[in-house]
Amino acid sequence: MANQFIKKLGLSKDTLFNLILTISAVLLIILGVGFFLSLFNASLVSLKKFGLSFFAKAEWDPVQEEFGALPFIYGTLLTSFIALAISLPFSIAISIVLGEYFQKGFFAEVLRYLTELIAGVPSVVLGFWGLFFLVPIVREVEMKFEIPPYGVGILTASLILAFMILPYSGSIGKDAMRLVPNELKEAAYALGATRWEMIKKVMLPYARSGITAGIILSLGRALGETMAVTMVIGNYHGIPENIFSPGNTIASVIANEFTEATGEVYLSSLMYLGLTLFIITTVVNLIGRFILKKLQH
Amino acid sequence: MSDIVLKTENLTASYDEHIVVKNVNLSIIRNKITAIMGPSGCGKTTLIRCFNRMHELSPKAKVEGKVLLIENSNEIIDVYSVDPMLVRRKIGMVFQKPNPFPTMSIYENVIAGYILNGIKLKKSEADEIVEESLKKVSLWDEVKDRLRKKGTFLSGGQQQRLCIARALAMKPDIILLDEPTSALDPVATAKIEELIEQLKDTVTIVIVTHNVGQAGRISDYVAFMYLGELVEYGPTDVIFTRPSHEKTEEFLTGKIG
């Protein structure tokens, strides 16, 4: 039946297949552009009212209908980059351990399973855990340093984020390390290198672009992560003074406030925030790709 | 007796209980080219990988017997009782497939042994080692203007010569060549063969090959291995004209191989 139908249309199976592929691809582009346009459209009210000053204003006052995104942009970038800095040494360590020392065997399996497990934990569970286990620990530390012991704040959110992104950067880093050709490892050994010298001077430079790719991917994830961060960041609308201060991220503000955004300007400002986050992640990804390209040559 | 640089005593090597080299007693003569030939799977590569302790890098690999590196009459190193890193610096190796480090420049590739071992070289020392090593492999004129470029842009034959330069830069006593021309075209192969002959004044060369012609063209001594055993060993002209074993003759005439 189907074959007869195709014949009637005068198409070969090959062109039909190509047609389906092309349609899917075009549909994807339309969806992407449509998503961006509708988000842009919904932000228009706020965009007209505040313009670019939206990014420079530190005020977020639904009553007076004054909206500025600066504290949230700041909070988003700060938590993500601190998380990245915290997870980086662990991620490289995982890459080395799973990519070279334990490629097979019991220990490798256990470690691989554990990292996959972390990746699979729903972020609300992680946030909940953070609230009841991590927050008291951070509070203890803050009391030791005689800082107001909120417990929740930028640092706590960064710690949770670091934990969440570790499986991503670690697993991509591991794959990058395993892709190092055996001939290169042998060449290093044959010149009298120890295993660590070989890892440091041959494997890591070779796997550098892959490891960087993992880090950038995990940064993209950290920027948009919502639930766990919202639960432990403190939801403070000002610019955080230091890493122990409560703060807020773009994603957290949207998640917290979309239900109560009754005014037109308020809702539109939240959309504008969404647009901002979309742009930030896109820019980060573009920068990441640029770095990758540079590293590969 | 000729000047011996490396000697094996009852050397036996295995992978996972499977014996690949059986009870080999062999003496390599200093500043000569020794070719180890035999059909594939006869254990010739494993044998030379035992000389610089590369064999033990494979999981479940085992070595029994002795390998002695005789630097001079006063200094004899028992290869299996010292640090393997030290052995590998004294016995260099070149592999089947050219494997320059793709993240390093040509310059860095030549002194890679020093970089990897964390040995700091003065700029002038490094320059000198690079120039000298590249000249020895007749690559200097071809690359002197692009030393800072990546070694992977070179042709296969050039890459292999770069790898030989990298081994020479460590000033080893012996260089082991594991079928160094099997991935190269005939022109590049001829160049490498010519180069190997020039090098024997400075370094002892052991070359593994399954190419009878190559063994005949370049070697001074030849060892024939079959099924893990050293069947025959002696001066190349003697073995090629009057082999004393049937198997050697069969291999030389192409009946096995």
Automatic annotation (TrEMBL), chain A:
Topological type in the membrane: Multi-pass membrane protein
PROSITE patterns associated with the record: ABC_TM1
Protein biosynthesis as UniProt keyword: no
Entry's Gene Ontology cellular component terms: plasma membrane
Gene Ontology terms for molecular function: phosphate transmembrane transporter activity
SUPFAM superfamilies: MetI-like (SSF161098)
Transmembrane regions listed in the UniProt entry: 16-40, 72-98, 110-135, 147-168, 205-223, 270-292
All copies of domain ABC transmembrane type-1, residue ranges: 73-288
Subcellular location: Cell membrane
Record Gene3D superfamilies: MetI-like (1.10.3720.10)
Domain of life: Bacteria
One record GO biological process: phosphate ion transport
Keywords on record: Cell membrane, Membrane, Phosphate transport, Transmembrane, Transmembrane helix, Transport
Pfam family of the protein (one): BPD_transp_1
Stated family: Belongs to the binding-protein-dependent transport system permease family. CysTW subfamily.
Function: Part of the binding-protein-dependent transport system for phosphate; probably responsible for the translocation of the substrate across the membrane.
Protein name: Phosphate transport system permease protein
Organism: Candidatus Kryptonium thompsonii
Taxonomic lineage of the native organism: Bacteria, Pseudomonadati, Candidatus Kryptoniota, Candidatus Kryptonium
UniProtKB/TrEMBL annotation, chain B:
UniProt keyword Lipid biosynthesis, yes or no: no
Keyword hit for Signal: no
One Gene Ontology MF term: ATP binding
Domain ABC transporter: 6-252
GO biological process, alphabetically ordered: phosphate ion transmembrane transport
GO cellular component terms attached to this protein's record: membrane
InterPro entries in the record: AAA+_ATPase (IPR003593), ABC_transporter-like_ATP-bd (IPR003439), ABC_transporter-like_CS (IPR017871), P-loop_NTPase (IPR027417), PstB-like (IPR005670)
Parts forming coiled coils: none
Keywords from the named record: ATP-binding, Nucleotide-binding, Phosphate transport, Transport
Protein name, as recorded: Phosphate transport system ATP-binding protein
Native source species: Candidatus Kryptonium thompsonii
